[in-house]
Design a protein that fits this description.
With 280 residues, this protein is of the alpha/beta class. It is built from eleven helices and ten strands. It has two domains: 40-233, 3-Layer(aba) Sandwich (Rossmann fold), CATH 3.40.50.300; 245-280, no CATH class.
Length: 280
């Protein structure tokens, strides 16, 4: 976008979102507008304004979830002195890419705390805050403390061991955590937290709900990759793994509480689950 057009767009955004003259009072939503040069989607605005400590984003590919999380991380670092923001992902390359988005967003604002050190794996600011990429293995993530924000990108692909090793960094600080991903089967901590986790603010955004993705392209993509992968990557559905012999629904159909138990001790139970033949 030409510089003059970008300034015109930003002027409109400043007017629409009532940008303060002093950038020290920018909200997370206002920072998004200035850093990205566009207004956030409605679902992004809701999460940018959220004060919930735990956010879990089950969102389509290319929906803007990584950009959103990068802005949340940057806002924490810029406007919370001495903050520590950790970026985790299944691989170092992926967490470094999220860090790159944070730094791209930083380059779009001025009048905020200055960088004192930067690399592909970290950024340090003159307000004492840090943004740090963490290793992708459980054995090497220990040692961090007083973490204000933990962001786990591609969370459905992060191992349970890494996730369980990272969560204690929030214990004392009572910091925030953001999990973002597309699904990857009905397994792992991301699936469990989405289905039965407590105290999470959830957001589910399919590709059809993203205004930047062409519906015709989506239909062509469905035909190209098949319904299984399409529903997982673009429909935000937790599919059975491709290596499973039976579907989860088949197992569910084998369970009933209506059959009377055959053993006396079991008969004392108030609710009994008995396997019955299922039609596969």
């Amino acid at each position: 976008m030409p510089a003059e057009h970008r300034e015109q767009a930003l002027d409109l955004l400043r007017s629409k979102h009532r940008m303060p003259q002093d950038v020290a009072h920018l909200t997370c939503e206002q920072l998004f507008c200035l850093a990205v040069g566009n207004a956030p989607d409605d679902w992004q605005s809701k999460l940018l304004r959220s004060e919930q400590r735990q956010l879990i984003l089950n969102c389509s590919r290319q929906s803007g979830k990584s950009q959103l999380s990068a802005i949340i991380g940057l806002h924490t670092a810029l406007f919370t002195p001495n903050a520590l923001v950790l970026l985790a992902a299944p691989s170092l390359r992926q967490s470094s890419e999220l860090h790159r988005k944070v730094m791209q967003a930083y380059s779009g604002v001025s009048g905020v705390p200055r960088l004192t050190a930067t690399s592909a794996l970290k950024a340090e600011f003159d307000n004492g805050s840090r943004v740090q990429v963490v290793p992708s293995t459980e054995e090497t993530v220990r040692g961090f403390s007083a973490v204000n924000l933990l962001i786990c990108d591609e969370a459905s692909r992060i191992s349970d061991e890494l996730y369980f090793s990272l969560r204690p960094v929030l214990a004392v600080s009572k910091g925030r955590i953001v999990l973002l991903s597309t699904p990857s089967g009905q397994r792992g901590f991301f699936y469990k937290e989405w289905i039965e986790g407590t105290e999470w603010e959830r957001a589910r955004i399919t590709a059809a709900e993203c205004p930047r993705i062409d519906p015709q392209w989506l239909e062509e993509e469905r035909n190209r990759i098949g319904d299984y992968w399409f529903q997982q990557e673009y429909g935000c559905e937790f599919q059975d793994t491709t290596t499973a012999i039976f579907r989860s629904a088949d197992y569910d159909n084998c369970i009933t509480s209506e059959v009377k138990p055959l053993w006396a001790k079991v008969a004392q139970a108030t609710s009994v689950s008995v396997i019955q033949p299922a039609v596969l």
